[in-house]
Amino acid sequence: MVDQVLLMGRTKVVGPAGRFGARYGSTLRKKVRDVLLKRYSPQQCPFCGYTGGVVRVSVGLWTCRKCGAVWAGGAYYHRTEISKYFPKVVVRE
Ligand SMILES: [Zn+2]
């Protein structure tokens, strides 16, 4: 895993945020890393439960390759705090 990450031009400390080089300060890059790792990690489809088939169509719009469901989620993560509490409002099939 670590080797793969390094091969992809990423760094140990800030991961995918390594592309920003030395800019923006380490604290900010670490925050960006947390977001990006979440965004690129396999996510579970809330409809069929399949993990790894969830793709972001555009900002806040997610789809599942397995069952074809499309729903509105977060910009960088398929579920937001709001959709946990109001799944029927935020999630549309
Ligand atoms: Zn699905």
TrEMBL record:
Record key words, sorted: Ribonucleoprotein, Ribosomal protein, RNA-binding, rRNA-binding
MF terms (GO), sorted A to Z: large ribosomal subunit rRNA binding; structural constituent of ribosome; zinc ion binding
Gene Ontology biological-process annotations: translation
Residues that bind Zn(2+): 45, 48, 64, 67
Keyword Transmembrane helix appears in the UniProt entry: no
Pfam families in alphabetical order: Ribosomal_L37ae
Gene Ontology cellular component list: ribonucleoprotein complex; ribosome
Subunit structure: Part of the 50S ribosomal subunit.
Function recorded in the entry: Binds to the 23S rRNA.
Family according to the record: Belongs to the eukaryotic ribosomal protein eL43 family. Putative zinc-binding subfamily.
Name under which the protein is recorded: Large ribosomal subunit protein eL43
